[in-house]
Amino acid sequence: MNIAESERMRAMLAGETNLVVVNSCAVTGEALSQTRKAIRRARRDHPGARLVVTGCAAEIDRAAIGAMDEVDGLVANAAKLDPRAWNIAADAPPVAPARTRAFVAVQNGCDHACTFCVIPQGRGVSRSLSVADVLREVEAHLTAGAKEVVLTGVDLTSWGHDLPDEPRLGTLVEAILASFPGLPRLRLSSVDGIEIDAGLFDLLAYEPRVMPHLHLSLQHGADLILKRMKRRHLRRDAVELAQRLKALRPDIAIGADLIAGFPTETHAHHDENLGIIDELDIVHAHIFPYSARPGTPAARMPQVPRDVVKARAADLRARAAARRAVWLDSLVGETLPVLAERDSTGYAPNYARVALPAGTAAGDIIKVNVREVREGLLG
Protein backbone atom coordinates (compact mmCIF):
# COMPACT_ATOMS: atom_id res chain seq x y z
CA MET A 1 0.00 0.00 0.00
CA ASN A 2 2.75 2.47 0.94
CA ILE A 3 4.72 1.52 -2.18
CA ALA A 4 1.68 2.25 -4.37
CA GLU A 5 1.02 5.59 -2.70
CA SER A 6 4.68 6.61 -2.63
CA GLU A 7 5.07 5.91 -6.34
CA ARG A 8 1.99 8.03 -7.13
CA MET A 9 3.35 10.90 -5.03
CA ARG A 10 6.78 10.55 -6.66
CA ALA A 11 5.19 10.87 -10.11
CA MET A 12 2.87 13.68 -9.03
CA LEU A 13 5.74 15.69 -7.52
CA ALA A 14 8.28 14.96 -10.24
CA GLY A 15 8.44 18.64 -11.20
CA GLU A 16 9.18 19.83 -7.67
CA THR A 17 12.76 20.62 -6.71
CA ASN A 18 14.47 20.55 -3.33
CA LEU A 19 11.58 18.67 -1.71
CA VAL A 20 11.81 15.54 0.46
CA VAL A 21 8.63 13.64 1.38
CA VAL A 22 8.49 11.01 4.14
CA ASN A 23 5.45 8.77 3.69
CA SER A 24 5.18 7.47 7.24
CA CYS A 25 3.77 4.37 8.92
CA ALA A 26 2.35 3.82 12.39
CA VAL A 27 1.09 0.23 12.28
CA THR A 28 3.45 -0.74 15.12
CA GLY A 29 5.56 1.09 17.66
CA GLU A 30 8.64 0.00 15.70
CA ALA A 31 7.19 1.53 12.52
CA LEU A 32 6.75 4.84 14.33
CA SER A 33 10.34 4.65 15.59
CA GLN A 34 11.57 3.94 12.06
CA THR A 35 9.56 6.92 10.79
CA ARG A 36 11.40 9.24 13.19
CA LYS A 37 14.75 7.77 12.15
CA ALA A 38 13.85 8.22 8.47
CA ILE A 39 12.98 11.88 9.09
CA ARG A 40 16.28 12.56 10.85
CA ARG A 41 18.25 10.71 8.18
CA ALA A 42 16.47 12.61 5.40
CA ARG A 43 17.34 15.93 7.04
CA ARG A 44 21.00 14.93 7.39
CA ASP A 45 21.16 13.86 3.75
CA HIS A 46 19.29 16.93 2.46
CA PRO A 47 20.01 19.80 4.86
CA GLY A 48 18.69 22.51 2.54
CA ALA A 49 15.52 20.77 1.32
CA ARG A 50 11.94 21.36 2.37
CA LEU A 51 10.99 18.23 4.35
CA VAL A 52 7.30 17.29 4.46
CA VAL A 53 5.82 14.31 6.31
CA THR A 54 2.59 12.56 5.42
CA GLY A 55 1.12 9.09 6.02
CA CYS A 56 -0.32 7.39 9.08
CA ALA A 57 2.24 8.53 11.64
CA ALA A 58 1.71 12.13 10.57
CA GLU A 59 -2.00 11.61 11.22
CA ILE A 60 -1.97 9.58 14.43
CA ASP A 61 1.03 11.29 16.07
CA ARG A 62 0.55 14.64 14.34
CA ALA A 63 1.60 16.95 17.19
CA ALA A 64 4.80 15.07 18.01
CA ILE A 65 5.86 14.60 14.37
CA GLY A 66 5.07 18.23 13.56
CA ALA A 67 7.15 19.39 16.52
CA MET A 68 10.31 17.68 15.25
CA ASP A 69 12.96 20.27 14.35
CA GLU A 70 13.66 18.48 11.07
CA VAL A 71 10.06 18.77 9.79
CA ASP A 72 8.95 21.77 7.72
CA GLY A 73 5.35 20.72 7.22
CA LEU A 74 2.70 17.99 7.34
CA VAL A 75 0.20 16.86 4.70
CA ALA A 76 -2.92 15.06 5.91
CA ASN A 77 -2.98 11.36 5.07
CA ALA A 78 -6.35 11.65 3.32
CA ALA A 79 -5.03 14.46 1.10
CA LYS A 80 -1.58 13.17 0.17
CA LEU A 81 -2.61 12.06 -3.35
CA ASP A 82 -4.45 15.35 -4.02
CA PRO A 83 -2.28 17.80 -5.99
CA ARG A 84 -3.98 20.73 -4.21
CA ALA A 85 -2.44 19.62 -0.91
CA TRP A 86 0.99 20.20 -2.48
CA ASN A 87 0.10 23.43 -4.31
CA ILE A 88 0.73 21.93 -7.72
CA ALA A 89 -1.36 21.89 -10.90
CA ALA A 90 -4.19 19.37 -10.89
CA ASP A 91 -4.83 19.26 -14.63
CA ALA A 92 -3.07 15.95 -15.29
CA PRO A 93 -3.04 12.68 -13.34
CA PRO A 94 0.34 11.24 -12.36
CA VAL A 95 1.93 9.08 -15.02
CA ALA A 96 2.70 5.55 -13.88
CA PRO A 97 6.46 5.01 -13.56
CA ALA A 98 8.07 2.22 -15.55
CA ARG A 99 8.33 -0.75 -13.19
CA THR A 100 8.41 -4.50 -13.62
CA ARG A 101 5.64 -4.85 -11.02
CA ALA A 102 2.89 -2.26 -10.59
CA PHE A 103 1.31 -1.75 -7.17
CA VAL A 104 -2.27 -0.57 -7.59
CA ALA A 105 -4.08 0.59 -4.46
CA VAL A 106 -7.72 -0.21 -5.17
CA GLN A 107 -9.02 0.35 -1.63
CA ASN A 108 -8.16 2.49 1.38
CA GLY A 109 -9.27 2.73 5.01
CA CYS A 110 -10.98 0.11 7.15
CA ASP A 111 -14.42 -0.35 8.70
CA HIS A 112 -13.35 -3.02 11.20
CA ALA A 113 -12.29 -2.51 14.80
CA CYS A 114 -9.50 -4.96 15.60
CA THR A 115 -8.51 -4.26 19.18
CA PHE A 116 -4.77 -3.86 18.42
CA CYS A 117 -5.02 -1.64 15.36
CA VAL A 118 -4.70 2.13 14.82
CA ILE A 119 -5.09 2.01 11.04
CA PRO A 120 -8.70 3.31 11.03
CA GLN A 121 -7.47 6.34 13.01
CA GLY A 122 -4.87 7.05 10.33
CA ARG A 123 -6.82 6.18 7.20
CA GLY A 124 -10.52 6.50 8.00
CA VAL A 125 -13.39 4.39 6.68
CA SER A 126 -13.15 1.94 3.79
CA ARG A 127 -13.22 3.53 0.33
CA SER A 128 -13.00 1.72 -3.00
CA LEU A 129 -11.83 2.84 -6.42
CA SER A 130 -14.40 2.18 -9.12
CA VAL A 131 -13.74 -0.55 -11.67
CA ALA A 132 -13.24 2.11 -14.34
CA ASP A 133 -10.66 3.97 -12.24
CA VAL A 134 -8.76 0.75 -11.51
CA LEU A 135 -8.72 -0.21 -15.19
CA ARG A 136 -7.35 3.21 -16.15
CA GLU A 137 -4.55 2.90 -13.62
CA VAL A 138 -3.70 -0.66 -14.68
CA GLU A 139 -3.62 0.45 -18.31
CA ALA A 140 -1.18 3.27 -17.47
CA HIS A 141 1.15 0.83 -15.71
CA LEU A 142 1.00 -1.69 -18.56
CA THR A 143 1.72 1.06 -21.09
CA ALA A 144 4.78 1.97 -18.99
CA GLY A 145 6.02 -1.62 -19.22
CA ALA A 146 4.79 -3.42 -16.11
CA LYS A 147 4.48 -7.21 -16.47
CA GLU A 148 2.78 -7.88 -13.14
CA VAL A 149 0.01 -6.01 -11.37
CA VAL A 150 -0.26 -6.28 -7.58
CA LEU A 151 -3.61 -5.25 -6.15
CA THR A 152 -3.28 -3.73 -2.72
CA GLY A 153 -5.33 -1.99 -0.05
CA VAL A 154 -5.63 -1.55 3.68
CA ASP A 155 -8.44 -4.12 3.74
CA LEU A 156 -8.24 -5.38 0.17
CA THR A 157 -11.05 -7.93 0.34
CA SER A 158 -13.50 -5.25 1.46
CA TRP A 159 -13.17 -3.65 -1.98
CA GLY A 160 -16.58 -2.85 -3.44
CA HIS A 161 -18.63 -2.73 -0.23
CA ASP A 162 -19.15 1.02 -0.67
CA LEU A 163 -19.83 0.93 -4.44
CA PRO A 164 -23.22 0.61 -6.17
CA ASP A 165 -24.50 -2.99 -6.08
CA GLU A 166 -21.62 -3.87 -3.69
CA PRO A 167 -19.41 -5.89 -6.08
CA ARG A 168 -16.86 -8.25 -4.57
CA LEU A 169 -13.12 -8.36 -5.19
CA GLY A 170 -13.50 -11.34 -7.51
CA THR A 171 -15.53 -9.11 -9.84
CA LEU A 172 -12.68 -6.59 -10.04
CA VAL A 173 -10.02 -9.24 -10.66
CA GLU A 174 -12.14 -10.78 -13.41
CA ALA A 175 -12.66 -7.35 -15.01
CA ILE A 176 -8.90 -6.69 -15.05
CA LEU A 177 -8.11 -10.06 -16.61
CA ALA A 178 -10.84 -9.65 -19.23
CA SER A 179 -9.84 -6.08 -20.12
CA PHE A 180 -6.12 -6.85 -20.45
CA PRO A 181 -5.68 -10.30 -21.98
CA GLY A 182 -1.99 -9.52 -22.50
CA LEU A 183 -1.36 -9.03 -18.77
CA PRO A 184 0.72 -12.09 -17.84
CA ARG A 185 0.59 -11.88 -14.04
CA LEU A 186 -1.81 -10.53 -11.42
CA ARG A 187 -1.05 -10.86 -7.72
CA LEU A 188 -2.97 -10.01 -4.54
CA SER A 189 -1.39 -8.42 -1.51
CA SER A 190 -2.59 -9.26 2.01
CA VAL A 191 -6.21 -10.44 2.18
CA ASP A 192 -8.72 -11.26 4.89
CA GLY A 193 -9.43 -14.93 4.23
CA ILE A 194 -12.95 -14.81 5.66
CA GLU A 195 -13.90 -12.21 3.01
CA ILE A 196 -12.75 -14.18 -0.04
CA ASP A 197 -15.82 -14.46 -2.28
CA ALA A 198 -16.66 -17.46 -4.45
CA GLY A 199 -15.52 -15.74 -7.64
CA LEU A 200 -12.16 -14.79 -6.16
CA PHE A 201 -11.68 -18.29 -4.76
CA ASP A 202 -12.23 -19.80 -8.22
CA LEU A 203 -9.74 -17.39 -9.77
CA LEU A 204 -7.13 -18.25 -7.14
CA ALA A 205 -7.77 -21.95 -7.69
CA TYR A 206 -8.00 -22.13 -11.48
CA GLU A 207 -6.77 -18.96 -13.25
CA PRO A 208 -3.10 -19.29 -14.29
CA ARG A 209 -2.62 -15.52 -14.62
CA VAL A 210 -3.57 -15.06 -10.95
CA MET A 211 -0.37 -15.93 -9.13
CA PRO A 212 -0.40 -18.97 -6.79
CA HIS A 213 0.41 -16.88 -3.73
CA LEU A 214 -2.05 -16.05 -0.94
CA HIS A 215 -1.01 -13.83 1.95
CA LEU A 216 -3.48 -13.98 4.83
CA SER A 217 -4.12 -11.30 7.42
CA LEU A 218 -4.22 -14.12 9.96
CA GLN A 219 -2.72 -12.50 13.10
CA HIS A 220 -2.85 -15.54 15.41
CA GLY A 221 -3.39 -19.28 15.66
CA ALA A 222 -5.38 -19.42 18.91
CA ASP A 223 -9.14 -18.92 18.84
CA LEU A 224 -9.36 -17.12 22.17
CA ILE A 225 -6.71 -14.61 21.11
CA LEU A 226 -8.45 -14.11 17.76
CA LYS A 227 -11.65 -13.31 19.64
CA ARG A 228 -9.83 -10.86 21.90
CA MET A 229 -8.34 -9.28 18.81
CA LYS A 230 -11.89 -8.96 17.47
CA ARG A 231 -10.97 -10.78 14.31
CA ARG A 232 -13.83 -12.27 12.29
CA HIS A 233 -12.32 -15.70 11.67
CA LEU A 234 -11.24 -18.68 13.74
CA ARG A 235 -8.30 -21.01 13.27
CA ARG A 236 -10.40 -23.60 11.46
CA ASP A 237 -11.53 -21.02 8.88
CA ALA A 238 -7.93 -20.39 7.81
CA VAL A 239 -7.09 -24.11 7.83
CA GLU A 240 -10.11 -25.02 5.72
CA LEU A 241 -9.39 -22.23 3.22
CA ALA A 242 -5.78 -23.32 2.78
CA GLN A 243 -6.73 -26.97 2.46
CA ARG A 244 -9.38 -26.25 -0.18
CA LEU A 245 -7.01 -24.14 -2.26
CA LYS A 246 -4.09 -26.57 -1.98
CA ALA A 247 -6.32 -29.44 -3.06
CA LEU A 248 -7.17 -27.54 -6.25
CA ARG A 249 -3.84 -25.77 -6.82
CA PRO A 250 -1.05 -27.67 -5.07
CA ASP A 251 1.66 -25.13 -5.94
CA ILE A 252 -0.03 -22.26 -4.10
CA ALA A 253 2.25 -20.64 -1.50
CA ILE A 254 0.68 -19.40 1.73
CA GLY A 255 1.88 -16.32 3.57
CA ALA A 256 0.52 -14.79 6.74
CA ASP A 257 0.87 -11.99 9.26
CA LEU A 258 1.27 -13.24 12.84
CA ILE A 259 1.46 -11.23 16.07
CA ALA A 260 3.58 -12.49 18.95
CA GLY A 261 2.80 -11.72 22.57
CA PHE A 262 -0.69 -10.27 22.26
CA PRO A 263 -2.11 -9.25 25.66
CA THR A 264 -3.31 -12.25 27.76
CA GLU A 265 -1.41 -14.69 25.48
CA THR A 266 -0.40 -17.78 27.48
CA HIS A 267 2.26 -20.38 26.68
CA ALA A 268 -0.52 -22.59 25.32
CA HIS A 269 -1.74 -19.81 23.02
CA HIS A 270 1.85 -19.28 21.83
CA ASP A 271 2.13 -22.99 21.05
CA GLU A 272 -1.03 -22.71 18.93
CA ASN A 273 0.51 -19.73 17.15
CA LEU A 274 3.62 -21.77 16.40
CA GLY A 275 1.50 -24.70 15.26
CA ILE A 276 -0.48 -22.72 12.70
CA ILE A 277 2.76 -22.14 10.74
CA ASP A 278 3.10 -25.87 10.16
CA GLU A 279 -0.61 -26.61 9.76
CA LEU A 280 -1.08 -23.96 7.05
CA ASP A 281 2.42 -24.53 5.62
CA ILE A 282 3.17 -20.80 5.90
CA VAL A 283 6.25 -20.09 3.78
CA HIS A 284 5.98 -16.29 3.61
CA ALA A 285 5.60 -15.20 7.23
CA HIS A 286 5.51 -11.63 8.53
CA ILE A 287 6.08 -11.77 12.30
CA PHE A 288 5.24 -8.76 14.46
CA PRO A 289 6.05 -8.49 18.16
CA TYR A 290 2.94 -6.96 19.74
CA SER A 291 3.28 -3.28 20.61
CA ALA A 292 0.53 -1.38 22.40
CA ARG A 293 -0.88 1.38 20.26
CA PRO A 294 -2.34 4.38 22.12
CA GLY A 295 -6.12 4.51 22.25
CA THR A 296 -6.69 0.87 21.27
CA PRO A 297 -8.63 -1.60 23.45
CA ALA A 298 -5.71 -4.04 23.48
CA ALA A 299 -3.50 -1.42 25.13
CA ARG A 300 -5.80 -1.61 28.17
CA MET A 301 -5.64 -5.42 28.41
CA PRO A 302 -3.14 -7.25 30.68
CA GLN A 303 0.19 -7.02 28.84
CA VAL A 304 2.71 -9.79 28.27
CA PRO A 305 6.20 -8.83 29.59
CA ARG A 306 8.33 -7.29 26.87
CA ASP A 307 11.10 -9.85 27.11
CA VAL A 308 8.53 -12.62 26.67
CA VAL A 309 7.03 -10.88 23.64
CA LYS A 310 10.47 -10.66 22.00
CA ALA A 311 11.27 -14.30 22.82
CA ARG A 312 7.98 -15.50 21.34
CA ALA A 313 8.54 -13.43 18.20
CA ALA A 314 11.95 -15.09 17.87
CA ASP A 315 10.30 -18.52 18.26
CA LEU A 316 7.82 -17.71 15.50
CA ARG A 317 10.54 -16.43 13.18
CA ALA A 318 12.64 -19.56 13.75
CA ARG A 319 9.67 -21.85 13.06
CA ALA A 320 8.75 -19.85 9.95
CA ALA A 321 12.34 -19.91 8.69
CA ALA A 322 12.49 -23.69 9.11
CA ARG A 323 9.23 -24.15 7.24
CA ARG A 324 10.40 -21.82 4.46
CA ALA A 325 13.73 -23.64 4.12
CA VAL A 326 11.93 -26.96 3.58
CA TRP A 327 9.70 -25.33 0.96
CA LEU A 328 12.62 -23.77 -0.92
CA ASP A 329 14.46 -27.10 -0.94
CA SER A 330 11.33 -28.71 -2.43
CA LEU A 331 11.54 -26.36 -5.41
CA VAL A 332 15.00 -27.57 -6.45
CA GLY A 333 14.65 -29.40 -9.75
CA GLU A 334 11.62 -27.40 -10.88
CA THR A 335 11.48 -25.02 -13.83
CA LEU A 336 9.93 -21.68 -12.83
CA PRO A 337 8.97 -18.62 -14.89
CA VAL A 338 10.66 -15.69 -13.16
CA LEU A 339 9.93 -12.00 -13.62
CA ALA A 340 13.30 -10.24 -13.58
CA GLU A 341 13.85 -7.22 -11.32
CA ARG A 342 16.66 -4.67 -11.64
CA ASP A 343 19.01 -6.34 -9.12
CA SER A 344 19.72 -9.66 -10.89
CA THR A 345 16.94 -11.39 -8.98
CA GLY A 346 13.28 -11.94 -9.71
CA TYR A 347 10.08 -13.47 -8.43
CA ALA A 348 8.55 -16.80 -9.36
CA PRO A 349 4.73 -17.02 -9.44
CA ASN A 350 4.77 -18.44 -5.89
CA TYR A 351 6.78 -15.38 -4.75
CA ALA A 352 9.98 -17.30 -4.22
CA ARG A 353 12.93 -15.04 -4.97
CA VAL A 354 15.31 -16.35 -7.62
CA ALA A 355 18.88 -15.35 -8.48
CA LEU A 356 19.26 -14.58 -12.19
CA PRO A 357 22.27 -14.37 -14.51
CA ALA A 358 23.97 -10.98 -14.50
CA GLY A 359 22.66 -8.79 -17.30
CA THR A 360 19.14 -10.24 -17.35
CA ALA A 361 16.89 -7.45 -18.58
CA ALA A 362 14.45 -6.14 -15.99
CA GLY A 363 10.90 -6.94 -16.97
CA ASP A 364 11.72 -10.12 -18.85
CA ILE A 365 9.98 -13.32 -17.78
CA ILE A 366 12.48 -16.13 -18.14
CA LYS A 367 12.41 -19.84 -17.41
CA VAL A 368 14.82 -20.87 -14.66
CA ASN A 369 15.83 -24.45 -13.90
CA VAL A 370 16.27 -24.37 -10.13
CA ARG A 371 19.46 -26.18 -9.12
CA GLU A 372 20.16 -24.94 -5.57
CA VAL A 373 19.17 -22.76 -2.65
CA ARG A 374 21.82 -20.26 -1.56
CA GLU A 375 21.27 -17.70 1.20
CA GLY A 376 17.52 -17.93 0.80
CA LEU A 377 17.57 -17.50 -2.97
CA LEU A 378 16.77 -20.11 -5.57
CA GLY A 379 19.26 -20.36 -8.36
Automatic annotation (TrEMBL):
Where is the signal peptide, in residue numbers? none
Q: Which domain of life is it from?
A: Bacteria
UniProt organism field: Erythrobacter ramosus
Q: Which residues form the Radical SAM core domain?
A: 96-329
The cofactor(s) it depends on are:
[4Fe-4S] cluster
Q: What is this protein called?
A: Threonylcarbamoyladenosine tRNA methylthiotransferase MtaB
Does Transferase appear among the keywords? yes
Q: Do you know which PROSITE patterns this protein is assigned to?
A: MTTASE_N, MTTASE_RADICAL, RADICAL_SAM
Q: Which GO molecular-function terms appear in the entry? A: tRNA (N(6)-L-threonylcarbamoyladenosine(37)-C(2))-methylthiotransferase activity
Under PANTHER family, the record lists: RADICAL SAM PROTEINS, THREONYLCARBAMOYLADENOSINE TRNA METHYLTHIOTRANSFERASE
Kindly state which keywords UniProt assigns to this record, in alphabetical order: 4Fe-4S, Iron, Iron-sulfur, Metal-binding, S-adenosyl-L-methionine, Transferase
- Gene3D superfamilies for the chain: Methylthiotransferase, N-terminal domain (3.40.50.12160), tm_1862 like domain (3.80.30.20)
Q: What class of enzyme is it?
A: transferase
| Assigned EC number | 2.8.4.5
Q: Which InterPro entries match?
A: Elp3/MiaA/NifB-like_rSAM, Methylthiotransferase, Methylthiotransferase_CS, Methylthiotransferase_N, Methylthiotransferase_N_sf, rSAM, rSAM_horseshoe, rSAM_sf
Where the record annotates domain MTTase N-terminal, the positions are 1-91
